[in-house]
Amino acid sequence: MEQRYATNPEQIPGFDTQDLRDRYLIEQVFVPGQVTAVYTHQDRIVLGGAEPAGHELSLPTFDELRSDFFLQRREMGVLNVGGDGVITVDGTVYEMPSTACLYIGRGARDVVFTDARPDQERGAQFYLFSAPAHADHPTTLALPGDGTVRELGDQKTSNRRTLTQYIHEGGIRSCQVVMGFTRLHEGSMWNTMPAHTHDRRTECYLYFDVPQDARVFHIMGEPERTRHLVVADRQAVISPSWSLHCGVGTAAYTFVWAMAGENQFFDDMDAHPVTEIR
């Protein structure tokens, strides 16, 4: 498990491009046949990936958590961004087609990730997002088409997008995890407009379905002193509570958003008009 310590906005002016990437960008979320994990001290979130690649992968008990098993004091949201897969939680089997989401509650001991079929062109890729939990909530599956769907943006401003909420106050219940995904419509490239901060939560993005020859320019930092990260397909960004977040791609793409922190109010955000961003 890689550990990344919390940063503050006063450090940003001294960071060069590589410093920013080292602290906020996770370049390799998915490794065939492995479970990866990054522990960020921003709200003590763990994020990572599980890519079975024809094997059975068990969720490890990482020494850094100092626990008897991974979810002893934690909860987890899992969203499949690859081909069809299966997750088995304490003997219960959950079929996970692409973009399905599984909430796994505190106390689950044995979590196993597998592919659904060996002959599919792309295997399953499970994106993992975990935060500390103070109560037990039942493990719950949401299939594509479930969840709360919100249509946002406008084609005129190149940010028309469909947002699906899975784990949130009005959907799958959790202690503090909020999770879903957003798909940009063809011809739209801007996400998360108007740009904003969440001073009470950390948010992490996993960009996927980014064409091989395309990139997303993820804007971060303080609104009056922004920086950017150039992000490729299936790479993740850690966005601290004080950091602005929005982005634009060279083609349409999809991203998983997930948050943890003070509350679960999706609309709890501090908007920053584009005319005031520098």
UniProtKB/TrEMBL annotation:
Catalytic reaction equation(s): 5-dehydro-4-deoxy-D-glucuronate = 3-deoxy-D-glycero-2,5-hexodiulosonate
Cited Pfam families: KduI
GO BP of this protein: D-galacturonate catabolic process; D-glucuronate catabolic process; pectin catabolic process
Pathway entry: Glycan metabolism; pectin degradation; 2-dehydro-3-deoxy-D-gluconate from pectin: step 4/5
Keyword terms: Isomerase, Metal-binding, Zinc
Entry cofactors: Zn(2+)
Record-linked InterPro entries: KduI (IPR007045), KduI/IolB_isomerase (IPR021120), KduI_N (IPR027449), RmlC-like_jellyroll (IPR014710), RmlC_Cupin_sf (IPR011051)
EC number: 5.3.1.17
Binding site for Zn(2+): 196, 198, 203, 245
UniProt remark on cofactor binding: Binds 1 zinc ion per subunit.
GO molecular function: 4-deoxy-L-threo-5-hexosulose-uronate ketol-isomerase activity; zinc ion binding
Family: Belongs to the KduI family.
Function field: Catalyzes the isomerization of 5-dehydro-4-deoxy-D-glucuronate to 3-deoxy-D-glycero-2,5-hexodiulosonate.
Protein name listed in UniProt: 4-deoxy-L-threo-5-hexosulose-uronate ketol-isomerase
Provenance organism: Actinomyces glycerinitolerans
Gene: kduI
